[in-house]
Amino acid sequence: MSMGEQPLFEAVQDGNDETKDMEGVVEIQDTASANKVDDKSLRGEYTWVIEDWSQIKEPKKYSENFEIGTHLWRLLVCPQGMNAPGQLSVFLDSPEAAFAPANLNPTASFKLTIINQKTPGQGDYWKESSHKWSQTETDWGFSQCMLLAELHDPERGFIVNDTLKIKVEITVQRDERYYYDSRKETGYVGLKNQGATCYMNSLLQYLYHLPYFRKAVYHMPTSENDEPTTSLPLALQSLFYKLQYSRTPVSTKDLTKSFGWSTMDAFMQHDVQELNRVLCEKLEEKMKGTRVERVINELFEGHTLNYLECVAVDYKSSRRESFMDLQLDVKGCSDIYDSFDRYTQVEMMDGENQYKAEGYGLQDARKGVLFDQLPPVLQLQLKRFEYDFARDTMVKINDRYEFYDELDLDRGDGKYLSPQADRSVRNQYKLHSVLVHSGGVHGGHYYAYIRPDGKTWLKFDDTAVTIEDGSKALEEQFGGEDEPGGSPAGRLQGPVQEGEQQQQQPLAGTPLMPKQRLKFTKFSNAYMLVYVRLSDWPRYMAPVAKDGIAPYLLERLEAEQREKERRQKEKQEAHLYCHVRIATDADIAQQVGSSQWFDLVDYDQLPPSRTFRVRKLTRFSDFKQQVAAQLGVPEDAQRYWVWQQRQNKTYRPTSRLKPDEESAHIVDLREHREMGHTTAKHALMDLRLYLEIPWPPESPVQTPNRQEINLFFKYYDPQAESLKYVGHRYVLKSYKVCEIFPLMAKLAGLPLDTPLQAYEEVKWEPTVMICAIDPQFTLHQEAQLESGDIICFQKAVPDLPQAAAAAADDSSGLIKAAPESMDLDEEQQQQQTAQQAAQQQQDLQQQVQQQLAAAQNHPHAELLQCTFPRVPEFLSYIRSRRQVTFRRLEEPKEPGLQLELLREDSYDTVAAALAAKLGLPDPTHLRLTQHNAYSNMPQRTPMKFREKSSLQGMLQHAGHATDTLYYELLDMPLPQLEQLKSLRVHFHNDKTEFVGEHVVHFHNDKTEFVGEHVVRLPRDACVGDVLAELGSRLGEEYKGRQLRLLEVYHSKIYKVFEPSEEIANMDANYWLIRAEPVPPDEAVPLPPGHRLIHVYHNRSPKPDAAAAAAAAAAAANNNDAAAADGAAAPPATPANSGGGGFVSGSGGGGFVSGSGAAAGPLATFGDPFLLRIAPDETLGQVKARIQQKLGVAAAEFATWRAAFVSIRAAPEFLGDDEVLASRFAAADSQHAVAESNYLGLAHEDKGVRRPASSANRYTYERPVKIYN
Fold first, then answer.
1. Would you name the residues annotated as active-site residues?
2. pLDDT digits (tens, 9 = 90+) for 116-151
3. Kind and range of the H or E element at 683?
């Protein structure tokens, strides 16, 4: 910022310069007192007055329930003692401990006092104890509390007027594991980890503790209609406000949702610096055009000056670039100043690496980087992770690297600054934050050390915030090595032998010689450092009070905070409350026929007005007053029923609350709590009641007696295929079913004389059981109906004479002709039998016709035409129907299409329904794949034809029910396809380049490019058949060419198939099956002494400019010479060209004449190939053929290096005059395998790096993106 500009925010003036920058102290004072736990709420006493002591006959007597320390208690006394005759037994009981989760059970110390009523406080008798109540120990006290003789002694004064008084004093002890209050202890709160968001939590804490940044976020414009889950500015504002004023750890879910992240993103760890850049870029974009537009640049932006100047001529060039953070080397640097020295180190461009200056040609030059302007907040990323080219993997640099409490970048007379830098600005920095990574390249954990006030260090480790010593933030995060018993910070699992030069004192009791001392690598070390310039500290670290927040935003955030605190208080006191859920007939009528078909009501679908949150010590009579006020039902009109789970897993309201229960406390009704749930969520108390009130409202109030039962009625209409609840009624147990038909017809709005059929709902799982009720049965004794049972009824449907018709059909064979050879008597007998059979047949057919006529004359004959004419059929259909989503296998994330099917449907039925929806004439051209319930994606293996017998089996995975199937369209019937072996073959041309094919889809004639050839042949076919089929597809270019088939994995050839090998056991899912034309010089048989070798590409670092230039020049010279001779000459490279690669000892950036051993194993990539070599052929000659085969430019190929690789020794780079045949073992040239020797080509991998299956998060992790 220039001197003439006005600051965007004015610093908060305190009047006391010494405390102006101590925001942390101010916040501790503001919040600690507000959040201090009131210890009085954890203590209390209760006195139990027991009258008529001598009249107590029961062995145990309980007091009423009372509340102390947010827990319910009661006293238990045994007047005759418990297992101790002559003793008074007294216990303190926790009535909810038997079913409450462990974290809600109390731990307390208590004092039981038998009060001396003659001299209270002087002659009392007391005992003390403490206990942790649990499900197995619900009471605790003294079985031998006091001798009964002393208790009943009138002179002692414990019993006066047959009254005994027992007092208990309780102090509840909080479990710090659940009640640690970081706001109280430190003044700050942490952030919750969503799974793997520790890196984000560390960054957010650091940014929050830059008050200037926080204030800028508060002033980002938002609207009233914005939601935190979709607006990044509002989500960050809300999160910062909660960090400033919340009493408990803050969730980041709204923020990650505003990023557009899914749950999977929350479980994927990223780099903290990458997130910092992406987040700040997104905020910069959101701040444009607002009053906070340049805040991020003002805080973090600095400028470097990249310069280049020639030594011998007057030529200079420079370029000014901005930066938001700096990446500093760790490897090879002892401290932070070493890193800055390396960052600004001058590089000489001379020799082969001269600079081409415009107008002067090639010149020796110096180039480097200096700082033109340093930012107020300096963000430094330490390069702890580097790529190891030798091992083809990322490694973490755990070397010791020191940094300091203060950083002076003006040192050395400003050697880091450019000549035009403003020297009036003092670049003295103070350490503000240390972001730490603990772990290795395959995983780890981030946390941060921050000192908001510039004095006190705090550790922010997700939800935990603690005050720490300064050495924890500095010395212990230097990295390096540590002895056992030293710093507890992370250690690697393997010890390292240490010599005498770094001797330290051994631990007491473990005398070791210096060479025997063990060291452990500390894997917990600093990863990112944040320094704030001392001169800018008062401005950018000034406290942010509420008046620094936009008023409209402050009002919204305060309202959200109040709501959050209300919910938190409810959660903390949840064990003191009970949820009483009430269902009425109106609720039953609303659900039945829409979301509920069996039973009566689903309590989870009730409106919020039906749920009452009441304290457990509330009397039920007081609760009825709340119901009267909220639902408008007078107290005397409220009649409550409790639900009972029956053996068939149904729930029915079977009994009314008794008068003594309606006068008790809510907690005393715990035996009626929710049935069927044993989770901690429901373990405390959840009462579900049925409130019986007149319904419809005009219905008369029913007054039941003991001879009546309460039945619930549903009416089914087959024509409308609808089921609805029509009410409940009390009916005499002695009634026959037919006697209540008029009542049922009236409830359904039918004429009272309508013929009806009645069914009882019996069970829903595992199969629907709806039983018909005989109209002549009595309700209770014969039909065995009781209160709470459900009767489904409908208009009577006539029964078709199916049995009679079947009998008539079967009897048609009774009339037979007599054989010609039969005697007369026998013939007469046979004729008589035939006449009788004919008469029976005629009578039976007449009976069938009469029954059919009767059915047609039935008043409800039209119901026979309905799809589901009867209740059992309809409810069986309701239970069996499934809404199934079908998605294309190639597009598993698309919405797809939906079909309603039955879970009993066969494979053929499902395929036919899908084919009809897609307009396919033949369902066998479909192949289905099941859904993976864990990955939410298709399973790897598709279903075979008719593999699953029903839709229910198709929608099951590992015991989980799903509603999704995937389909693919085939170009042949699936049964035919399954008789064939399908191979996915990658075809490569003579240059080893991959060549795909175009296919035409049979179902839509669409031509699509696919990357592989799919070859289908009978399972007993051989490799020769595969090659013949493939040759027929390749066109004229490869007509008549000999082909071969290879097995490739991880860019290595593992097998060359014989044409006679069968394909049945070939696995194209694991191996890459590759086909290629055989070059003429590799056709078998090979000339004597010739052999085929494997040639692989090995990954090499990018060569430096000098090596590349020298190699290119040499290549050009050699190519010119080769052109003059009319023959290709191998490229040559100066032996001392320098460069990287895998060289140990001598070597260069390109192929070298000398040999050298590689530093480690070589990682393969790209497409391997086979190559014929002659017995006397040198490497130089082979390289010329390789360059021609691959079509690589000479300049680029000159940087490639060749190595002989064997599993028995380290890779060895070869010279051009090396004879290759002498290097390779005399193995069968036709059957070389990957484990044998091969020729490696080390060069830069310019292809797209794709993540391997074992890739870790530091190698090819998914990049951080903020979508919204």
1. 198, 445
2. 988 877 889 999 999 999 888 889 999 889 999 889
3. helix 680-683
